[in-house]
Design a protein that fits this description.
Order of helices and strands: HHEHEHEHEHEHEHEHEH
Helix content: 25-40%
Structural class: alpha/beta
Low-confidence stretches: 1-8
Strand order of the largest sheet: 1-2-3-4-5-6-7-8
Strand content: 5-15%
Shape: globular
Radius of gyration: 19 Å
Number of helices: 10
Number of strands: 8
Length: 323
């Protein structure tokens, strides 16, 4: 199915009833449809975020089987440094058995540093790696994680992204490692999105409050995979955009649908003192995924999912890595 065909085939929420009442919406503009796809022509993949260790992963996998929720990627938010080698290995093996990409966060990051600027009203410095030692810690996490079999790394700093991209090109970490930009620093305009792609990003989170027109603007300059919380955690706005999923895919493909959870306490950095909350929210994120997929199916827009097990982003534009 071509992008244009999928755009016209999907039924918009409430369309038939509203049209009968004289309240039908204007026809969709085919020019808004993203022309980009994942390798293999899939237009969307799924991601379950905030999976903070082997126990939470087991809950996610069990619930995904029970509710028949397809998963392409599972990501963790606390950081590589919060997991033992044995825990990472267990997660790598469990996701490998299902052919699911596992993505672990590199750290440290600014909100946990001793610098006070991130706690001011201006949030100066934000989540970025503060100083050489913080960058070094992120690189240490990346090398350790990839040596244990992790193939996707989550970053929240442009310098760390560029450094890991150079490390990938130099063979310090495997060439097929994918680098994912965190929603915590997600770009909000086409120019910034394109810069992240050129710095080495293979998958770029955008804030969940971007409008449909914003997504179209981004797609006119870049075909890099985009990640978006269909339901965002409260510290990222708490937005719930389930009824827009079909249109988000049409405008934003290739798109990772992230199933977050609003109205839930934060769990980073994870420890066993947060165990019950972490397991219950992990289970509910999968259920939220089922709800979003059911909406897609009811609207006739559940086609064009990328094959399960696919993880690579395709050919992307990069800055030169040579000195």
């Amino acid at each position: 199915m071509t992008p244009d065909a999928s755009a016209t085939a999907a039924r918009r929420p409430g369309e038939q009833a509203l049209t009968s009442l004289g309240l039908g919406a204007p026809a969709l503009d085919p020019a808004d449809t993203s022309s980009h796809t994942f390798p293999g022509d899939g237009r969307w993949r799924t991601e379950i975020p905030s999976c903070e260790g082997p126990e939470a992963l087991a809950v996610v996998l069990k619930e995904a089987s029970r509710l028949d929720v397809p998963i392409h990627r599972i990501s963790q938010g606390s950081g590589v440094w919060m997991l033992t080698d044995a825990e990472i290995t267990e997660m790598v093996e469990a996701t490998g058995e299902r052919d699911i990409e596992l993505c672990l966060f590199t750290g440290p990051r600014g909100t946990w540093d001793i610098g006070g600027s991130t706690r001011t009203d201006s949030r100066g410095g934000g989540l970025r790696a503060r100083g050489h030692d913080a960058v070094a810690g992120c690189v240490e996490d990346a090398v350790r994680a990839t040596e244990l079999g992790v193939k996707c790394l989550l970053v929240a700093d442009e310098g760390v992204l560029w450094t890991l991209h150079r490390a990938r090109a130099a063979g310090i970490i495997p060439a097929d490692t994918t680098l994912k930009v965190s929603a915590l620093i997600g770009p909000v305009n086409p120019a910034a999105f394109a810069v992240y792609e050129r710095l080495g990003a293979d998958s770029i989170n955008v804030p969940s409050d971007l409008t449909l027109d914003h997504l179209t603007e981004i797609r006119r300059v870049s075909g890099a995979p985009m990640d978006m919380y269909i339901e965002a955690p409260d510290d990222l706005g708490g937005y719930v955009r389930m009824y827009e999923v079909a249109e988000l895919i049409r405008r934003g493909a290739p798109l990772y649908l992230k199933f977050g959870l609003s109205k839930a306490p934060g769990i980073y950095p994870y420890g066993h003192h947060l165990r019950e909350l972490t397991l219950s929210t992990a289970k509910e994120r999968v259920r939220r995924g089922r709800l979003a997929l059911d909406l897609l199916a009811r609207h006739g827009a559940d086609g064009d999912m990328a094959p399960l097990g696919s993880r690579l982003p395709g050919t992307l534009q990069r800055f030169e890595t040579s000195a």
